[in-house]
Amino acid sequence: MRYAVLVLVLCAAVVASVSLGDIAVPPMDVLQSLLFGGGEYDLVVRELRWPRTLLAAVGGAALAIGGALIQSVTRNPLASPDIIGITQGAGLAATIALTTGIVSVAPAATAGGLLAAAAVFAFGGAQTSRRFVLAGVAIAFALRAGIEIVLTSAETLDAQRAQIWLIGSLNGRGFEEAAPIGVVLALTMAPLAWAAWALRTTSLDDDVARGIGVRPVARRYGLAALGVVIAATATAQIGAVDFVALVAPQLAQRLSKRERPPIVASALIGATLVVFADLLGRRLLAPTQLPAGVLTAALGAPYLVYLLLKRRRA
Amino acid sequence: MKRSAVLVLGALLLGVAVAASLAIGARSVPLSEVLAALLGELTGDNAVIVRDMRLPRTLVGIEVGVALAMAGAMMQTLTRNPIAEPRILGISAGASTGVVVAIALFGVGTLGGWIWFGLLGAGLAGTLVFAVAARAREGASPVNLALAGAAIDAGLGALIYGLLSIDAATFDQFRFWVVGALSGRTSQMALQVLPFVLAGVVLAAVSARGLDALSLGDDVARGLGHRVGRVRITAGAASILLTGAAVAVAGPIAFVGLAVPHAARALVGTGHRWVLPVSALLGAVLVLSADVLGRVLFPPGEVPAGVITALVGAPVLLWTVRRR
C-alpha cells in the first residue's frame, strides 16, 4: 500500500517534470507522446525532457540506495556518501578531468569515488562504524582541499564548469548518462536482493548476529562495498547532488517505521526528490537554471537540522 | 618544561615566523632590509614589498591564527569533544555563507560590511551546533558532531555555489577567498578585523576560569559556584566572534583550531588560562608558516594557506580519532 503511494508520487513528479517548461505540455499529451509517440509535442517530450527526467529518477534512486546501505552499515543516519568522502573523491577526479581534459569525466569520477572509498576502508576499517565514519570525514576534508587546489590553479571557465559539476546539474544530460547507472543497478539486482535480506540483521548486536550464524564483519564489508559502487556510479554521472543519499533513506525509514532504511522505498523517494529538485531548479528562476544540487541542498539542510535537534541523544 | 618557558618559546617561534613571513616570497628580502623597511629607512621595491604587501598579510595571518586557535580550544571544551573546530563544526561554513550572501544578494563589496554578515552566519551555525551538543547529557559524540558539521559544511557549500553559479565575476573573486588565503590582504583589512578579534580574546580571557570548571562537568562547575549558562554563552559568543572575524578576512581556513589546542594541552596541561594564550601564539605561528610554505612551494604560483593547513590537518584529525 505504502509502496503504491510512493510509486504514484514518483509518477506524478515525472509527468510534472516532462510537462512543465518554457512550452507547457498538457499531462495527457505527455502520456500519449511517451507511450505511443506521434503528435505535436514529440520533440519537446521525447528528445528534451524525458531523457533528463529519466536520468534524474535513475540517478536519485541510485544515490538513495547507496545512502541506505552505508547508513545501515554504519548505523548512523548522517553517514552518507557525500559526507564520508566518496563524493569528494569523485569530485576531485572530475575536477582534474574537467580542467585538464586528459581523461573523460565520468570514468575518472567513478574511479575517484572508488579510490576514496578504498582509502576510507583502509584507514577506518569496517570493524567499528565510529572509526569508519570519522576516517571518512577526515578523508573528505583532505580531498576537498585537493579539489580547492585544482580549482584555484585552473582557468576561470574551466573552474566554473568544474564547479557546476561539483554541485550536480542535469542540464544537457540524458540517456547517455542514465545508461551506466541503469546497467550497474541491473547488475547489482542480485546482490541488492541479498542486501535487503542482510540489512534485517544489521541492527543486531555483533554477538547476537554471530549466534544466529551471520558473519557481521564480512557482511558489513559486503554491504558497504555494494553501496559505494552504486553511489560512485551515480555521482560520476550526475555530479555531487547533495543530501539525496542522506535524506531519502531517512524519509523511507520513517515512513516504513523500520529499524533500518528499506532499499526499495529509499530508491523511490530518492528518484522523486531528484526529479522534483531538477524541476524546481529549471522553473524557479527561469530562464536562469539552478543546478539540481542547489535545490536538494536547500531542501536537505533544513531537514538535517530538524533531524539533529530532534534526536534526544545526539 | 615549565609553563612560562613554553610561553616564551612560543613567542620566540612567533618572532621567527613573522621574520620569515616578511622576508620570504617570490622575491626574497634580506632581514637587514626588512628591518630597515619597517623602520622607514629603506626606499625602493623591497621597501614597498615588505611594508605594503608582506606586513599586512603577516598581521592578518597573526589575527587569523590567534582567532581560530582560541576558538577551537573553547569549542573543544564547550562541546566536550576533542575534534571540535570552527571548520569541522560547520561554523566557518556559516560565516562563509554570510559573506557570500552579502556579496551576491546585497552587493556589499568591503570587508567592513562582510564582517557583520560573517558574524551573523557564524552565529546562526554556532547556535545550532552548540544546541545540538548541549542536548546530549555527556556531550554529543565526536562522530555525530563531526557528521553534523560536515553536513552543514556540505549543505551551505552547495548553497554558496548555487548563488555564485549565477554570477561569473563574483565566482572568480570568491573561488580564491573560499579556500582560505592571506594573499592580497591590506593593512586596512587588518585594522578592520582587529576590534572583533580583540573583543573575542577579552571574552575568552574572562571565561577561562569558567571553562576550567566546565570541563569537570556541569554539576561540579555549579558546585564550584560558576554560573554554567553564563560561561557557555560568554565562551560561545567569543568563539563565534573569533571565527566570524577570521573567516570574513581570510576565508574558512581549516584545522588550525583542531591541531593547535591539542598541542597546547600537551605542553601546558588543561588549564584554560595557559591553554588559551599558548594556543593563540602557536595558532599564529601555524598560519604564518602555512602561508610562507604556500609561497615557496610552487613558485611563481601561490598555494593558499588554507590548502596547506587542510593537508596538514587531515592526518591530525585521523590521529586524534584513532588515539581514543
Structure, explained:
- The complex is a heterodimer of chains A (314) and B (324).
- With 314 residues, chain A is mainly α.
- In chain A, 75% of the residues lie in helices and 0% in strands.
- The longest helix of chain A is centred in the first third of the chain and has 33 residues, at 42-74.
- The radius of gyration of chain A is 19 Å and the shape is globular.
- Chain A starts with a helix and ends with a helix.
- Helices cover 77% and strands 0% of the residues of chain B.
- Chain B contains 13 helices and no strands.
- Classes of the chains: A mainly alpha (314), B mainly alpha (324).
- At the A-B interface, helix 6, helix 7 and helix 14 of A face helix 5, helix 6, helix 7 and helix 13 of B.
List its salient traits.
heterodimer; A: 314 residues; mainly alpha; ABC transporter involved in vitamin B12 uptake, BtuC; 14 helices; B: 324 residues; 13 helices
Full CATH superfamily name of chain A: ABC transporter involved in vitamin B12 uptake, BtuC
Low-pLDDT segments of chain B: none
Name of the top-level CATH class of chain A = Mainly Alpha
How many domain units of chain B? 1
Classify the beta-strand content of chain B into a percent band.
under 5%
Indicate the CATH architecture of chain B.
Orthogonal Bundle
User: In the CATH scheme, what's the topology name of chain A?
Assistant: ABC transporter involved in vitamin B12 uptake, BtuC
Assign the CATH topology of chain B: ABC transporter involved in vitamin B12 uptake, BtuC
Rg of chain B, alpha carbons:
19 Å
Shape of chain A: globular
Label the CATH architecture of chain A: Orthogonal Bundle
What is the tally of beta strands of chain B? Answer: 0
Question: What overall form of chain B do the CA principal axes indicate?
Answer: globular
Determine the mean pLDDT of chain B. 84
The helix-strand sequence of chain A is HHHHHHHHHHHHHH
Task: Name the quaternary structure.
Answer: heterodimer
